[in-house]
Amino acid sequence: MGDNGEVGNTYESILNWLGKKGYNLDELGLIITEQKDQLIIAGAGSGKTTSIIFKLNADIKTGNAVHEVRHKDMTTQVADKIWVSTFLKSGAEDLQRTFMKQKNEMGISVGVETVKFSTLHAEFLHCLKELKVPVHIMDMKSTMGMIRDVAKNFGLGSRPGYPTNEEVSSIVSYISAARNRLNPDEFYHPDMEDVGLTRENIKYVIANYAQMRKDYKCMDFEDLQELLYKFACNPETRNPHVTNFISNRYDRIIIDEFQDVSEIQYEIFKVYAKGCKQVTVIGDDDQSIYSWRGSNIDIITKRFPADFKPVINKLSRNYRCPSNVLNPIINSITMNENRYEKPLKASREGGTLNCYSYGSTIEMARSIQEQIMEDVNNGMTVAILGRTNPSLLPLSVFLDFQDKFNYAIRGTLYDLKRPKFRKYWQLAYLFMNNYEKMHENLKVIAKDLSNYQLKNFVNALKIQGQTIFNFPMNSLRNISEDLASFVIHINSTADDEVEKLKATFEFVKYRALDANDEYTEETVSIIELLEMIIECGDVKTMDDFIYEINYRNTRLHSRADSRDTTIQLTTVHDFKGKEADSVYIWKDTNKLFPSSRSADTEFEEERRIHYIAGTRAKEKSTILTIRGSESPFIAEMGIVPVAYFGEGASGSIRQNANQIMDDEIAEFIYGTDQSVQSGGVDFEKILEEKKESQTKLEEEQLQKQREEEENNKKTNSAPALDFSSMFGNKPQ
What we know:
Pfam families: UvrD-helicase, UvrD_C. With about 725 residues, this protein is an alpha/beta fold. It is about 50% helix and about 10% strand.
């Protein structure tokens, strides 16, 4: 690493030392020697942590990080108080480790005792304590308990007033995201409606939670920044003593991951910066993906430059991804308008970028399993990245069934017992004559009936001892066209109950595809998960299916507890800032990249999420998509997916002569229609054919019955029952 004596006390000698160690000084040299306020735009994999810590140590080594203090007739030099901050505790610890390592290499022994590494929240807590503000921060268990009480008050959760642990955790996250905005009432995220939060009720939920904290005389982390904002930033409530105290806490500030700063945090940061001799912030506008929780890309692209007039330097060389991996994803991200222009480039040539299209999810899962095994045999670390947790579950279950290698699930694990999953797998009870659960089961199928009507219908079935599948079709059509279509589809299937369950899932999936709304991809992912359990498990009865649900749920939770990092399944958000030798982008489709739940105004952020996924690989990046449902970002990258046919090792890949395509070819292949396709299956046509067949069969049976009545002068079967009178328009 070089002799410590080689490092002099000037910037020139430090740069010479770094040059001998192989560092590229074209950009790093400008960053290290800058003494004005500085904004560093650091591209993915550009070594930003190393760069900002070299900047910090160089200022200390050269004696620049000092200031004069005059006391009576004496003037002394005192080390600057320096605060280095980032968002996660692990990130702050990583910065501190890098600092200590570099300090020793550079032979620095003084001036480091006044350097502080912490998260924003940790600094806010220390600041309030020094201001003698009584602070009692709740632990997460207490927070969850309090939010559970709030949920009961407002009927939140899929079972109103009785949310699951995961739903409580989601409510905590949404409340936190809202409170990171200057106006929490403006917060909205479509997923929050899954737990009962709406644009209308969230401000009352936040107020109720605040009253509870007040009653119990406790605080959470958002309270810390709200208090500082109130007494240091808000013109109507700020206290000059507090403002002066905060402004004079530090002489230099370095903020990492600046693209993730929320609006309220930025206002507090400006007060901290007032008394500083230098402010350095570093971030990547192309990796700003947390707008839903309060961050605002305009802070790094517009507001900080306008407020501080900083020198803007850039780190554009990517030391992680080789050129074949990086260059195509650059083609996509440069289409964003709200970004800094930067000459992104790979530090090395080579690498592998694959893009395969499949006819089904299980075909994709079989293929990726073999590719992963090959990667691991070649000594590679592997990450499989999904846009959402539900989208990864079919793969998680498939790999668990195959059990050919260990893998770990990172981030949030969705419990298969939670309501959004349970309502689908409990459709199995339709074939077990379980009247108690039938009302809830049929809610998934009959969108054209109210709860009241469904309950009446189930009661009628129970009284008559019938199932929905032998209910007279003419009467069923009078009650619900949805139920009639469903029964026709199921009754045309083989008598085997597992086949009927598979047909049920098929019905639900294609109805979701036909709806083509913000819930389509989540519903399809859950159904594919259940189909995967039937496909891979030894499922011969409904009891077998329910057993597999419980067993796989336990197995998946054990995967979530794994500490193995060789093979990881996680979301793009959870893998931000990390890397692996081989990275797979799972289900790179037009319902996930971009998410069907994102607004049109969030399209650039969706492109940034895709960019992050595409810049995690050190050697090989593999995009996996579904034919006919490709993400538009794939075309932006200028690549053509290679069609994959078959299953596992028996499958074949139809190679294109050249995966890189020009705009004309892309338009020919993709056109302008990016709608979800159903794998070439016209389900509505099939359903209509089944309806026609069922109607014809009913007519034949009716004619036969009439002939028998004429011949035998009696009725061989009970007349058709008609319960339609029970189904008024009574509201739910």
